[in-house]
Amino acid sequence: MGLSDKGFLSTEELKKRGRYPSEERFKKGPVAIIECSQEIPCNPCESSCNFGAINVGKPITNLPELNEKKCTGCGLCVAACPGLAIFVIDKTFSENLSTVSFPYEYPILPEKGDKVDAVDREGKYVCKGQVTKVMTSKAFDKTPVVTISVPDNHIDNVRGMALLRKKEEAKSE
Amino acid sequence: MNKREMVIIGGGPAGLTAAIEAAKRNVDVLLIDESIKPGGQLFKQIHKFFGSSAHRSGTRGIDIGKDLVAEADQLGVDLWLNSVVSGLFKEKNIAVERQLEDGSKKMEKIEAEKIVIATGASENAINFEGWTLPGVMGAGAAQTMINVHRVLPGEKVLMIGSGNVGLIVSYQLLQSGADVVGLVEAAPSIGGYGVHAAKIERAGVPIFTRHTIVEAKGDEKTGVKSAVIAEVDKNWEIITGTEKEFEVDVITIAAGLKPLGELANMHGCQKSYIPELGGWVPIHNENMESTCEGIYVVGDVTGVEEANTALEEGRLAGIDAALKLNYIDESEANNIKDEIRKRVNGLRLGPFGEKRLKAKERLIEDYQNLSNIVK
């Protein structure tokens, strides 16, 4: 299982390749995780960052490199990435909880406070999560960014939530 | 007979940029498209495009389409819609069934100084038991239904093929409210970009590599009821006993595209067989000019790629046509063309692009090696 038959890398593999922020950085607050692991011609993440924390350079097939010192975890790149491959993780959210922010381009949006099913990179249920923020800025061009909190031990695996198909779904939890 | 300086056949991304670049230099441009509005496939592309942010990547295809159509309009490009080019004859004579303002159709002949063929490509089909049942359709057809006509083709979909079209249309079907029960790919690896695969997997869609569709079950009246898939071995043979059945009402096929080069053939433009580009494609030079002088081929018709490369190829042809028609001086045109070529080759790097870069270079070599170019 890997990039060629799944399209994504596991957290362990990302770490091995030096494409995961350091634990030291995580202790300082929210930071972007760029899960873009193939050399494809694309660079909107680079110009979306107001802090110069993402570098693609030339040629534009280079993998984006995150400068974790410059990254503030603001999340602008999350909505800008056409591959929906950038996440923001905050391991400092509370004593036992961490948050993950991910793009969510589906018609029924969750609301702050909703309990949702947190899923991993394969869409498999991991644990319950609670929505802490839903950002829908005009600058995001119709790519809402949802943030959910989950227990600390799950944060490196959770990358999304089960799709909401009916408006009541989240409320009934 | 109508005489026109430049006629563009096909108003997709490549045709539109060719029209815009030429019209900007005051060339008289006529754009003919068979659809009710120009834009080609752009208006189906509701996702944000990859590419260089200097050239509007990160923008949704539908918005790029709107802007290009508005720009062409502003520049005074003459537009014939619902009009079908049915013939391209020697000395750049075009036969077109034109729709008039009252809706009636009229055959017209046009003699053009420059022609740009931007006819795109069509979807490949694959056949299997039950493939003619209602509910089995091309992925592009499903995409047109949901994104242009806002009609959901069904509730439960099985997608065949893991190229970018299969992956992106699966995602858009999920966005439209359909349930995509799985995506089947006969090869051992995913064909398209990993990030496109990852976003549908996160939404719970399983990807079955080394699997193929065996049968669509159902009847002619009510359509598809279920789909049977099975694992394949190294020789692509079905392994019996590995069959799985899914309850679905739609099966979508994303098995690649084939360039629509008939008009180029008709005029006698020479072609080459290049599998990486989708099969038979008209040969062209560095200006996108075919082996017939004054006839350009741009976009998928000369090699199935993606919208970004199509946009750049159209620009190249538009500039070169304006140069040959004496609307722009040579050094300026060459500078612009060099910039475009750098950008388009930049899009053809990396593990996905290199094959296409080499294939395109071969196409241009074929042009240079032809000793008897049809004039």
Summarize the structure.
The complex is a heterodimer of chains A (173) and B (375). Chain A has helices at 3-6, 11-16, 23-26, 44-48, 76-80, and strands at residues 31-34, 54-55, 65-66, 86-90, 97-103, 115-119, 125-135, 145-151, 160-161.
Q: Tell me the strand percentage band of chain A.
A: 25-35%
Q: State the shape of chain A.
A: globular
Helices of chain A, by number, come to 5
Number of domains of chain B: 2
- What is the second-level CATH architecture of the largest domain in chain B? 3-Layer(bba) Sandwich
Report on the architecture of this protein.
- Chain A has one domain (3-161).
- Helices cover 14% and strands 26% of the residues of chain A.
- Chain A is built from 5 helices and 9 strands.
- The radius of gyration of chain A is 16 Å and the shape is globular.
- Chain A starts with a helix and ends in a 12-residue tail after the last strand.
- The model of chain A has no long low-confidence stretch (mean pLDDT 95).
- In chain B, the strands form 5 sheets. In chain B, strands 1, 2, 3, 4, 5, 6 and 19 form a 7-stranded mixed sheet that branches.
- Chain B has helices at 13-24, 61-74, 139-147, 164-176, 194-202, 262-267, 307-324, 330-346, 350-369, and strands at residues 2-9, 29-32, 78-80, 84-89, 93-99, 105-117, 121-123, 136-138, 156-160, 179-185, 207-209, 211-219, 223-231, 244-247, 250-253, 257-259, 271-274, 279-282, 295-297.
- Chain B is of the alpha/beta class.
- Chain B starts with a strand and ends in a 6-residue tail after the last helix.
- Chain B is globular and about 65 Å long.
- In chain B, helix 1 (13-24) runs parallel beside helix 7 (307-324).
- Chain B folds into 2 domains: 2-122 and 257-369, FAD/NAD(P)-binding domain, CATH 3.50.50; 125-253, FAD/NAD(P)-binding domain (3-Layer(bba) Sandwich).
- Chain B contains 9 helices and 19 strands.
- The mean pLDDT of chain B is 96.
- At the A-B interface, helix 1 and helix 4 of A face helix 5 and helix 9 of B.
